[in-house]
Each structure stands twice: as structure tokens, then as C-alpha cells.
Sequence to fold (155 residues):
Amino acid sequence: MKQKLLNECIMRFPALSRNESISRSAAAGFAAQTDPKASDIAAVKIAVSEAVTNAVVHAYRNESRAEKRVVEMTMRLYEGGLLKIIIKDRGSGIADIEQAMKPEFSTAPESEERSGLGFTVMSSFMDKVKVRSAVGKGTSVILEKQLSTYEDEKQ
Ligand SMILES: Nc1ncnc2c1ncn2[C@@H]1O[C@H](COP(=O)(O)OP(=O)(O)OP(=O)(O)O)[C@@H](O)[C@H]1O
Ligand SMILES: [Mg+2]
Fold:
């Protein structure tokens, strides 16, 4: 059965590294509306940070037109406390998603010193991580987490 959508918030911003912390804080604020455990909010912040950083650093490597370098974050809260956050770019896309999600796989140049662990981190902090991508069209990362609340813990 489909859960009822309780709230939705959409943010669109240029793919700039300063927007990593802004989007992370926005996601924390959105998640906080159900008064979940602090560890849930921390988990959401970490996962969003990894997904937005990927859009900022990888998606637009071959795109010099500033107006094209855009990231959109959609946050949805469903009845029962299910949180879904979609981070979407219209950049290069990922040719092999399975390979990209493997630990320690990275296409970044060595000078950037990336560890290739972003997707692994997202998966360990969220219940589900889905990636939809098309080469030349862009990538959407869908993060899902059932937020727990202090009320849940009492039951
Ligand atoms: N939004 C995106 N657009 C294009 N390619 C992406 C995107 N997100 C991830 N990738 C590809 O998937 C690879 C793996 O991503 P992941 O976040 O796991 O590692 P990383 O970003 O390379 O390193 P780290 O996250 O540890 O700094 C990237 O190196 C890149 O090739
Ligand atoms: Mg990464």
C-alpha cells in the first residue's frame, strides 16, 4: 500500500561545494519535523552530503556552462515516518552503476584523493539507496530511511 505524502520540499541550486553544507542542513531540518533520534538526523546528513558532493564533483566535469551545472534535491516525508530524498543532476551520468557503487571504485583523478566510498557510506547509513542514471543525461540518487522516533522506542 502506498503511504500518504505528508510533506515535500524541493531545493534547486548550482553545483557548488558551498551548497554541500547548505543542502545537508536543509535535509537535517526536514528530517527533524518528526522529532526522530539524533542518530537518524546524523545519518541523513552524512548520506545527503555524499550524494550532493558526488553531483558537485563528478556530474559536471565536462560541463563548462555554469547555468547547466544544477542540482535538485527533493525531500519527501510519508505517513509513518518514511523519508525519501532524491538528489538529481543533469550531468554526465554513470555508465555502469553496479561498478560505481562498489567500495573503493572511483573515476576521480588521483590528485583529488577520493576513496571511492561515497555510495558505500550512503548505503550503510540509509535503509535503501537507488541510483538511476543515463549517460549524457544525468543521475538521480534516491535515499530512503524509516525515521525512528522516541515514541517508537517506548512501544
Ligand atoms: N552524480 C554523479 N554523476 C556522475 N558520476 C557519478 C556521480 N556520482 C557518482 N559517480 C561515479 O561513481 C563513482 C563512485 O562514487 P563514490 O561516491 O562511491 O566515490 P567517489 O566520489 O569517487 O569517492 P568518495 O565519495 O569516497 O570521495 C565516482 O567516482 C564517479 O565515477
Ligand atoms: Mg563520492
Remarks:
- The radius of gyration is 16 Å.
